[in-house]
Specification:
The structure holds two protein chains of two kinds.
Chain A lengths: L2 E10 L2 E11 L4 E5 L6 H9 L6 E6 L2 E2 L10 E4 L11 H10 L5 H14 L15 H13 L5 E5 L7 H18 L2 E6 L2 H7 L2 E6 L2 E6 L1 H6 L4 H6 L6 E5 L2 E3 L2 E6 L2 E4 L12 E5 L5 E3 L6 E13 L2 E8 L4 E7 L9 E7 L5 E4 L11
Helix pairs in contact in A: 2-3, 2-4
Chain B lengths: L5 H28 L4 H5 L12 H8 L1 E4 L2 E4 L2 H32 L5 H10 L5 H15 L5 H26 L2 H9 L4 H12 L1 H17 L2 H6 L7 H4 L4 E2 L2 E2 L1 H27 L10
Antiparallel strand pairs in B: 1-2, 3-4
Chain lengths: ~375, ~280
């Protein structure tokens, strides 16, 4: 089955970049490797491709241990962030290079190259040299080259990084179908959380050489494992408020700007520990009047309209800053000044401040 | 510089003309000299008006040098051939050895790698005479003195460091991703080297090869000490024109014209690759 990575380690000199990483990707599944730059996302792909040697651990492609195999014997396909097209070969020869090592049958190669090119809509530029292609066409050629051999494992290193916004959206819509069609186990690296959520069947959040969380996009957004993971998803980023929860008659209660917020049941374990309350900006409503269960008096200090929605920056009486993101035009015209930030405590996430882990409510 | 005054244009033109004259005039003068006899060359004042003669060239090609004190056999054509054979073999050997070495130095970090590369470069700093004395003794001992192979070997001191260091830079400019992509596509290391790395560094290899060829061609002192008349290149062979009855300026000029022609033709031919930037547009940006 697909791709299995067991306890993969990589160190350069004394510096450990990947520290015991394990991951399974099923056939036809796309796992997005997501994380800030410098966490070893690209390195992970290169280790799987065989461009670097692992310091420890095992890599299995379709059940076969390829840890010590040369890149040409691993049966993987890879698309690079910088395209890495062969500049002295036409687009056709670039794509055909993925097949020419395996078969000498010119007709068979031609049929596959043409079919793959049609699928990626570059059949009209096959005769061009890479320098004559637009960035979008280069990237499609690079994808075609990776896909043409129908590899068991497909590695995509931020392939949409260097194409313009329109093409990026087009490809975001096209890619999932394309990847399903080829049935490869795909590892997709990106630094864009929207791309990660759009393309991933699952997302592996890579932080400090380890997978901080491996889950579906919805799960990662709704229930991030740690504060660090929560911060990586969402724009504007999640509101994080330091709170000191304590138990009283109403259950676990925290205080934000002298407003008491009663958390729903199941958080008894968080009592007495310094905690962090996480609130997604889209769960916060700004209005002149309190709305909903909890309303914190705030001062609106900035409103940034972003077409279909607006981002509002507020400050509470005790100096905390809060973001709200709301759809609609009314919010865009909002004046600065006193208001209420309302939210549903049930939507709040609670993190342990000491280790950054989310405290899941018990039921 | 959209607005240049007429005065500036004229000044620039004049300066450019001066530079061109400075570099071209000696060659032009030698070209003229090669069609003159010693008498017209040495006439005072010198004049551009003369009756052209091909006698210098016929003397060189036939190998018979007529002087006032009789006929002298010279081996100019043989020397010219020696130059071609020695320089071409030296560069060919240096390419075979130097290109893979340059690739290794560019791609792999290994113990003492930089030291080895620098040691090879330092051969270029050492004065040739420093190594020639021990070398000639060794060569006598092991039978390499006065052989083409021995000379080609010694010429590696000139050609190898040059090829190694120039080509290394070109290999470093080739994105390792491009090579990785070819290997992942299923091709062996050797195929990747010959199909991707070498063609992409092609212009650099051509430039380095050409430069090394010219340096080998111009070498004088190695062949002077290590080779006999039969194996000497044209640089050493030209000494024959300094005869007992005087210096044969006409023949020297003709010899120079004949001996710079191959390198000049080679340079013109290789120009295409020297200026061709193959990797343009290969990688983003």
């Amino acid at each position: 089955m697909g791709l299995s990575i067991h306890d993969l380690k990589k160190a350069f000199g004394g510096h450990t970049v990947l520290d015991g990483l394990s991951l399974e990707v099923g056939d036809g599944e796309t796992v997005v490797v997501f994380g800030p730059s410098g966490t070893g996302k690209t390195l992970l792909l290169r280790l799987v491709a065989g461009a670097h040697e692992a310091s420890g651990g095992r890599i299995l492609v379709d059940g076969r241990d390829v840890t010590n195999e040369n890149p040409e014997h691993r049966g993987v396909g890879m698309a690079f962030q910088n395209f890495a097209l062969f500049p002295h070969m036409s687009a056709y020869d670039n794509i055909a290079s993925g097949l020419s090592a395996r078969t000498k049958d010119k007709a068979a190669i031609d049929a596959r190259v043409q079919a793959t090119a049609r699928l990626l809509k570059i059949d009209h530029v096959l005769g061009h040299q890479p320098r004559e292609l637009s960035n979008g066409q280069k990237q499609r050629t690079a994808l075609a080259r990776a896909l043409v051999g129908e590899p068991k494992v497909l590695l995509l290193d931020d392939p949409l990084r260097n194409v313009d916004a329109k093409l990026r959206y087009e490809m975001r819509l096209e890619l999932p179908n394309l990847l399903k069609r080829f049935g490869s186990a795909s590892l997709y690296v990106t630094q864009d959380y929207r791309e990660a959520m759009a393309l991933g069947d699952r997302i592996a959040v890579l932080l400090d050489g380890r997978i901080a969380q491996l889950a579906t996009p919805a799960e990662i957004y709704e229930a991030p494992a740690t504060i660090a993971v929560a911060r990586l998803f969402g724009d504007p980023t999640i509101n994080l408020l330091d709170v000191e929860p304590h138990l009283n008659g109403a259950g676990l209660t925290v205080s934000i700007a002298n407003t008491r917020v009663s958390l729903p049941g199941g958080y008894a374990a968080a009592a007495g520990r310094p905690a962090v309350l996480g609130l997604r900006p889209e769960d916060v409503v700004v209005d002149d009047r309190p709305q909903g269960a909890v309303a914190v008096p705030v001062e609106v200090v900035a409103v940034t309209p972003l077409n279909e929605r607006a981002v509002v920056l507020m400050r509470t009486d005790d100096g905390r800053e809060l973001f709200a993101a709301e759809p609609g035009e009314a919010i865009s015209g909002r004046r600065h000044g006193p208001a209420f930030a309302s939210f549903d405590p049930a939507r709040a996430l609670v993190f342990d401040r000491a280790d950054g882990r989310r405290i899941a409510p018990t039921h | 510089m959209d607005h240049t005054s007429p005065a500036e244009k004229i000044l620039r033109g004049a300066l450019l003309t001066l530079v061109v004259l400075f570099f071209i005039f000696p060659i032009f003068w030698i070209f003229l000299m090669s069609f003159q006899t010693n008498e017209t060359i040495l006439r005072i004042p010198p004049s551009l008006a003369f009756e052209p003669t091909l006698s210098n060239y016929t003397a060189l090609i036939s190998g018979r040098l007529e002087t006032q004190s009789g006929t002298l056999d010279i081996q100019f054509m043989r020397n010219l051939m020696n130059s071609v054979v020695l320089s071409a073999s030296a560069v060919a050997l240096a390419l075979v050895l130097g290109v893979p070495a340059a690739y290794a130095f560019a791609r792999f970090k290994f113990r003492l790698g930089e030291n080895i590369a620098f040691t090879l470069l330092s051969f270029r700093f050492a004065p040739p005479l420093l190594v020639l004395l021990p070398l000639s003794l060794y060569f006598q001992e092991i039978g390499l003195a006065d052989t083409y192979f021995g000379l080609v070997w010694v010429y590696q001191l000139i050609a190898l460091p040059m090829i190694l260091w120039i080509v290394r830079g070109y290999f470093e400019d080739v994105s390792p991703d491009i090579e990785s992509a070819y290997r992942i596509a299923g091709h062996s290391w050797w195929r990747t080297f010959t199909r991707i790395a070498v063609p992409l560094a092609g212009p650099g290899i051509a430039a380095a090869g050409l430069l090394a060829f010219i340096f080998c061609w111009n070498n004088f002192v190695f062949a002077l000490i290590l080779a006999s008349a039969a194996k000497q290149p044209v640089t050493v062979g030209s000494l024959a024109f300094v005869t007992a009855s005087g210096i044969q300026y006409g023949q020297i000029a003709a010899a120079i014209v004949l001996s710079i022609t191959p390198t000049l033709l080679l340079a013109l031919y290789a120009q295409r690759w020297l200026v061709e930037g193959l990797s343009l547009g290969a990688v983003k940006g």
